[in-house]
Write a structure and sequence with these properties.
The chain is of the alpha+beta class. It folds into four domains: 138 residues, no CATH class; 87 residues, no CATH class; 137 residues, Sandwich (Jelly Rolls), CATH 2.60.120; 68 residues, Recoverin, domain 1 (Orthogonal Bundle), CATH 1.10.238. The protein is built from 23 helices and 15 strands. A hairpin with a 5-residue loop joins strand 5 and strand 6. Helix 4 packs across helix 5, helix 15 crosses helix 18 and helix 18 crosses helix 21. The longest helix has 23 residues.
Length: 484
């Protein structure tokens, strides 16, 4: 057995991790692996084939905006700061680089609305987004009986309409001016043609694009899938496993197109380097009608088509989010909470189906079958052997099952946490070290989950784990895919 050179728990680990940990500028490897291998998102989506999520973004609007607005080339310092701050605080635009933000500020046009004037109507196609400069707008839901219900107010410095512009879904609500309103507006054509271009992204694209577009008279550069994988990892080598995973994710988003063009690459770069893109992808998959919100029928339609186990549509979770009558809606802002709760509910229901007597535990054999059928997950053989050795034939309780689900869904993040903290500490991690590092890196694990981590990776039972332990349990190829 490997023996760790123990050091006392680092008293300043929390401060050291905070000081030295910087999120990487290229988040592709970890996010892509999480989405295409162990993430619960792929549990729900990997059997699907969607020809295009983003392709409508690159088509000009079929109808011009009712108001074009006034271009203000010489914006005041306060106006520039308001737009920049709004972009930084918005989840969709938070990863625009400084060049893109500067161009967004330059291209934003000024619109004015009178009190009570409608900005846009729920259900219509949306091609532009707005930043409130002065005044307030009221966001209203059109109910089935034809009435309007106000549920949100947007004020100075807040953005609305961004989801429709980026994903070309229909407006999810009606927006009206509460009083006199001034707002900055950018439409999708300007965003794609003038703002999205970045010299940083173009340099990365040109570095790896190996072909000329045969369908373009100008012969613009295009990427093959091999080029795309290399650019995502910014490395000259291609791991076979990683190639398959990146190809799967790209096809989920863009379909089976032969080449990857710069506009596609630019949007994909923006999309995948922002926080929690898996929730956006999941929402797009559930939102089959592109309404910008989910109904109970949307969720049940998706689950019935793409999940391998039966789902109780009248469970408490569905009633809490969609109401007893099932007529409430889940909007983008609430979706991440709903999605996390849904995963837990699905896990609970799946476990109950294999534990009909309510014992609260299942055998290891049933546990593996459950992971295979519910999780659609192929575990590395080395990991299965480690689970066998750690469990020693003991049954798996429901609490254990949930903990294993969390660990298996977050293996890339887990490996990165262990590697980062061990590098900073310059030694293996105790359980307290691991808990501190997880908290600081915003990857918290419960006590039961931490116990599972050490059950899996503490190979010699000395109370410490290291990146080498991860490699021995998961295999070198797996760790390479995680970018550790």
């Amino acid at each position: 057995m490997q023996e760790h050179q123990h050091t006392h728990q680092h008293p300043d680990l929390i401060r050291t991790v905070s000081a030295r940990h910087h999120p990487p500028t290229n988040h592709f490897p970890l996010l892509l692996y999480a989405l295409t291998s162990s993430s619960q998102l792929l549990v729900l989506t990997h059997r699907m084939h969607y020809s295009s999520f983003f392709s409508p973004l690159f088509l000009p609007p079929s109808l011009p905006p009712s108001k074009t607005g006034t271009l203000v080339p010489d914006k005041s310092e306060s106006e520039r700061q308001l737009i920049e701050l709004a972009l930084h605080q918005n989840s969709l635009f938070t990863c625009l680089d400084e060049e893109q933000i500067t161009k967004f500020v330059k291209e934003a046009r000024l619109l004015e609305f009178d009190p009570g004037e409608t900005v846009f109507v729920q259900g219509e196609k949306g091609y532009d987004c707005f930043i409130v400069d002065e005044g307030e707008v009221e966001v209203m839901d059109a109910l089935e009986d034809g009435s309007m219900e106000s549920f949100l107010t947007k004020g100075r410095g807040q953005i609305f309409g961004d989801g429709s512009m980026i994903f070309h879904r229909r407006r999810s609500a009606t927006v009206k001016a509460k009083g006199k309103v001034r707002a900055w507006v950018v439409d999708d054509e300007v965003f794609v043609e003038k703002i999205l271009y970045s010299s940083r992204i173009k340099t990365l694209f040109d570095k790896y694009a190996s072909l000329k577009d045969p369908s373009d008279a100008r012969g613009d550069a295009v990427m093959t899938m091999d080029d795309f994988v290399r650019s995502c990892n910014d490395t000259s080598g291609i791991d076979v496993i990683k190639y398959s995973q990146l190809r799967s994710l790209y096809r989920i988003i863009r379909g089976d197109q032969e080449f990857i063009r710069f506009k596609d690459f630019s949007l994909f770069n923006m999309f995948m380097t922002r926080p929690d893109p898996e929730y956006d992808i999941a929402f797009l998959l559930f939102d089959r009608k592109k309404q910008g919100f989910l109904t109970k029928d949307d969720v049940l339609h998706f689950l019935s088509a793409h999940v391998g186990t039966a789902f109780d549509s009248e469970c408490d979770l569905m009633k809490r989010f969609f109401g007893v009558t099932g007529r409430k809606r889940v909007r983008v802002d609430d979706f991440s909470l709903f999605f996390n709760k849904l995963q837990n509910e699905m896990a609970q229901q799946a476990f109950l189906q294999v534990d009909p007597k309510g014992n609260g535990w299942v055998s290891l054999e049933v546990f593996y079958n459950l992971l295979s059928n519910f999780g659609r997950r192929q575990l590395p053989e080395s990991l299965v052997k480690r689970i066998d050795a750690a469990r020693q034939g003991h049954p798996v309780t429901f609490t254990d099952f949930l903990a294993y689900q969390t660990i298996l869904n977050n293996l890339p993040s887990l490996c990165t946490t262990i590697a980062t903290a061990a590098d900073i500490k310059a030694g293996p991690l105790s359980k307290d070290d691991f808990k501190v590092a997880s908290r600081v890196l915003n990857r918290r694990f419960s006590r039961a989950e931490s116990d599972i981590v050490f059950e899996l990776f503490d190979l010699n039972g000395d109370g410490y784990i290291s990146p080498d332990d991860c490699k021995r349990v998961l295999g070198a190829s797996y760790i390479k895919v995680c970018g550790v």
